[in-house]
């Protein structure tokens, strides 16, 4: 692993953690997902609140998304990935929490000195604060998403990441629920006083989590040579070598085409997700005559739907192949989105809430698919996939311009285009990997952790089902001279890591 393992963390023995050893590290990672879910939930509500208090247009209000997803995720994710590559997970996480807490506490002076006379300047200040928070969140996402994937059994990587991301959803509906009371009720509907207190609490929460991470003995994980990521593959992978004899991850990073297309899909998905949420309150107030308070509460219900969808998708990911599951979800999201752009009244708002259910598994599944089998590029690849979040900076201004020129309902054609791109990626991924529907049972695989890099190293653990191996294969596995197992007669093909 480039840069070595920091001295204040313990390297994982055996390639990945299992059982009780996995609980504490995952709990810490889940706290990070909760932090940025809460922050993201507040961001969507601030769009509407700033339109009211600061007198900005819908298009101008999307500057928050531009700073959050463009300035933070697009520009800072590569820096975070390089820190992760050189310094490891713990240092990167602490750096992200520092940015997050500082950015949140800066909301206090900006809100305190905001007046009707300097409304535009105040909004500029909020954009800077959002940028600092976003740099922290980009750092946390780069490290936490990757860590959740590699810390445990590769066979359950997608389900594990979806479970962790589910707590992001829990926090994201708490944000609008609090904001509906703090920002839109009574005298607070026309001032920024409560914005100060809410973001002060956010800053304190970030600092508290940073203290936990500082004193925790966080296990460090070496970059993996290969990871199937729950995708059934007919090919047999040698120890870090594909069926063509090429070392996994040995090609330059710009030739990792699955990762590149995964980035494009992630870019379009996040753009679609952000636009759907950012203009939710505008859609509900214009298309069904809800008040801003009622619309904010309904956004919270939508995010509850999203959270429930995450937990359900986690269970489904242990039964079905992830790329097949996402293909079905994408088809449903496209159908619902088309109705949203054409429908009217409360029924259309109900469908708008329902589409959050089908968005739920997309981000973690695309991340898992896009970072599989990157070898020495695993950590940088994680940074690139997180850069895909910058789609949230591109889509909202486009939708804002359409909404200002026509109306909010018509503007929902913009996320529809994003879902179509995601469908193209996951459908191709599913078809090219054998069109498997169910996850394979009785798999035989070898999980490796190579401290020596993409070539060479030591097989630290071996997992296999002896009943499915020939005597010769068992002997080869015990001697550690092979890095693959070919299992004949297993329904759906061969799994290898």
Task: Describe this protein's structure.
The chain is mostly helical and 497 residues long. The protein has one domain: Growth Hormone, Chain: A (Up-down Bundle), CATH 1.20.1250. 65% of the residues lie in helices and 0% in strands. Helix 6 packs antiparallel against helix 7, helix 10 (280-287) packs across helix 11 and helix 12 packs antiparallel against helix 13. The two termini are 18 Å apart. 57% of the residues are buried.
Kindly report the CATH topology. Growth Hormone, Chain: A
Helicity level: 55-70%
Percent of sequence in beta strands = under 5%
Report the C-alpha radius of gyration, rounded: 23 Å
- Count of helix runs: 19
| Helix-and-strand structural type | mainly alpha
CATH class assignment: Mainly Alpha
Number of domains: 1
Our measurement of the CA-to-CA distance between the termini, rounded to an integer number of angstroms, reads: 18 Å
**Average predicted local confidence, pLDDT:** 75
Low-confidence stretches: 1-14, 225-239, 442-497
List the helices and strands and how they pair.
Layout lengths: L22 H31 L4 H4 L1 H25 L1 H17 L1 H6 L6 H32 L6 H26 L10 H23 L41 H22 L1 H8 L4 H26 L4 H21 L2 H15 L2 H9 L7 H10 L3 H15 L2 H4 L1 H20 L38 H9 L18
Please outline what is shown here.
With 497 residues, this protein is mostly helical. It is built from 19 helices and no strands.
Q: What labels describe this entry?
A:
single chain; 497 residues; mainly alpha; Growth Hormone, Chain: A; 0% strand; disordered N terminus; disordered C terminus
